[in-house]
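Inverse folding, one chain.
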């Protein structure tokens, strides 16, 4: 099943306001999403929060597409309590690109961006505390990258900190 165009007043307003920076406003299985240029992520998040009342950043995550030039999708999931509506904002970035932090718009982005960094290696420019949050500080690699196989887990760390050989 493919995504279909998302037609609503909100989708029209976003397309009008951000113009060619929006490559899609679509819906899939009732889930509305916007695909935008990476440099527009923060302005769109601000617009959605301040003008459209999407006041809750539910989640921020990434998807790894290792064979694509823009290797990562960064996905912001927003919710409006007053509208009882959810929307996703997606940007596509190359490996090494540092999208601007969303902490200035949504404080909850702090730990969510740290998790994306910890699992995928995506750093956020301007983040106040860009460091690991789930894995030990000395862990090598980023476990949710598709080229980080389960057999590739940090054997040294397991041996040194758990005193065992990996069961992998």
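Residues assigned per position:
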């Amino acid at each position: 099943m493919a995504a279909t165009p998302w037609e609503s007043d909100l989708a029209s307003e976003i397309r009008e306001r951000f113009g060619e920076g929006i490559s899609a406003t679509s819906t899939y299985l009732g889930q509305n999403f916007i695909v935008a240029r990476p440099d527009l992520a923060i302005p769109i998040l601000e617009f959605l929060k301040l003008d459209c009342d999407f006041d809750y950043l539910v989640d921020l995550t990434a998807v790894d597409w290792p064979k694509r030039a823009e290797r990562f999708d960064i996905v912001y999931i927003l919710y409006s309590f007053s509208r009882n509506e959810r929307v996703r904002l997606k940007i596509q970035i190359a490996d090494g690109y540092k999208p601007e932090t969303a902490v200035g718009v949504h404080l909850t982005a702090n730990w969510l961006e740290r998790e994306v960094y910890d699992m995928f290696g995506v750093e956020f420019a301007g983040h106040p505390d860009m460091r690991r949050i789930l894995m030990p500080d000395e862990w090598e690699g980023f476990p949710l990258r598709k080229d980080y196989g389960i057999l590739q887990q940090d054997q040294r760390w397991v041996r040194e900190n758990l005193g065992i050989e990996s069961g992998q």
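Residues 138-168 form one domain. The beta strands are 4-5, 22-28, 31-36, 56-64, 72-80, 85-93.
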